[in-house]
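Closing statement on the uracil sub-project.
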Amino acid sequence: MFILNQTPSIAGNLIIELRDENLQKDRRRFRDNLTQLGYLLGYEISKSLSFTSQEIQTPLAKTSENALGSKLVLVCMMRASLPFYQGFLKCFPNADSAFIGVKRVEGKMPEVEIDLGYLASADINDKELIICDPMLATGKSILETITQLLKVGSPSKIHLASAFAAPEGINLLKKELRIPFKFWLGSLEAGLNDKFYIVPGLGDAGDLAFGKKL
Ligand code: URA
C-alpha cells in the first residue's frame, strides 16, 4: 500500500485545502485540487509500470529515454470521480478509459447499497486498470465496479487509487478481491461514521464538486 501524505510534500497542501470547510465553498478550487492530487498519485503509480527504452534524435545528438510501455485503462466512477480521474488522464494522456455510473442509495441503514448504471469501457483485456475513486469508504462501490468490469474482460493488474480511504473499505477489498491489486492512497483515514462517511475526510466529494444531489 502506498500512502502519499506519509512523506511530507505539496500533496499536504492539496489535502488541507480539500478538507477545509471554508475553502470547499469554492467548487472550482475543490475540483482543481482533486485533479492535482490525481495527477500526483498517477505519477507515483507510473514508477511501478513498465517502460521501454526509446531512441530520439535531438537537433544535436541521438539519445534514449524510458517510455511508458504499460497499457492502461483509467476507470472513472461517476460522478464523484470526474475531477480526480481528470488528474490521472493528464498524467496518462494516452490511456484508454472506462466510465461507470455508481450511486450510493442512502437511508438504508445499517447497510449502504450501491446502484450501478451506465457502463462504457474500452477493452480491458491484459491491460492495467487504474480505478479512480476519490473516497474509498465501505469499498462496496469499488467492489461492484470491478465485478462489472470483470464481466467484460480480464485485466492483468488493478491499481486502486483513492484520495482518502477508510480501513473498513480497505479490509473489505482485501478480503473479496481475487485479482492482484495495490492501493495508492492520498491519505489513510481514521474510519467511517454512522452514515458511512469517511472521518476526518472532507464530506461528500460529489456534492462539493458538482452541487448537492437531489
Ligand atoms: N463518499 C464521499 O463523497 N465521502 C465520504 O466520506 C464517503 C463516500
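The two ends are 36 Å apart (CA to CA). With this model delivered, the sub-project is considered complete and its resources will be redirected to Aim 3.
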